[in-house]
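Hi there, hope your week has been kind to you so far. Please have a think about how the structure follows from the sequence. I've dropped the whole record in just underneath, so have a look:

_____
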Amino acid sequence: MDTEQRRFPRTPINEETIYFSHPDKENKSERTYSPAVITDISRGGVGMQVGIPHEIDDELWLEGLEGFTVAQPARVKWVKEHNDSDDTFSIGVEFGSV
């Protein structure tokens, strides 16, 4: 993210979680689950390390977040590909209805 556009301060964290997306936008019952590591968190969203590429505005649902009993909807706001050998990506997601 080149310019700071965050509305809420983020707190560093290192927490494993899972999230899901709908590969078929028309079939919301089909889910693809993926592991992630949350690297920072705020009231408005999280930064995560993920193993699959995402695009801006992809819709995701995060599970297992402390304080929430249901999956939290989120939208990808930025993506950064790592050039190292571990094939990971950094993404920033904003909480909210998707």
Q: What stands out?
A: Residues 11-95 form a domain with the Thrombin, subunit H fold (CATH 2.40.10.220). Strands lie at 11-21, 32-41, 45-50, 59-63, 72-81, 89-95.
